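Lecture 7 notes: from sequence to structure.
We start with the chain below.
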Amino acid sequence: MIDKRQFLTAASVLGLGAALTWMGRTASSAAEERFEVTYDDAAWRKRLTPSQYAVLRQEGTEQPFSSPLNTEHRHGVFACAGCDLNLFASETKFDSGTGWPSFYAPLPGAAATTRDTSFGMTRTEVHCHRCGGHLGHVFDDGPQPTGLRYCMNGVAMTFKPV
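Predicted structure tokens for the same chain:
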């Protein structure tokens, strides 16, 4: 049987470990990379809507099924809302049923990935190669030909019809 002091000590250690895992990403995070397009925080806030800023610059996640890009089926290109880099061709978009726009492959050189250990789990974060904006995560449960599912935040992108 453990006493109150032992319980509180163990809970504190576990809570601290969880908080550090939740707050931190690995040393290879996008924030530590150098990008072609950079702005200070005030400039990003001015350029982006509050929801775009929360996702692209603070690694937030939009609510599932909230993006108009979920139902975008025209021929065109999905681009970064932060720097306008073309990210995904419409031909690679598919309905994953997750509530976020999903693609099986980015355009060559458009997206980069980093290991994300936030929230007590290990995932692969996807960010814009040009500005470092957080786009979403990639999982290995997508369709062929890649078997990948790039699960993107719609607010982090714009659509350019062709």
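Points to note: The domain at 26-161 is CATH 2.170.150.20 (Metal Binding Protein, Guanine Nucleotide Exchange Factor; Chain A). The helical segments are 4-23, 41-47, 50-56.
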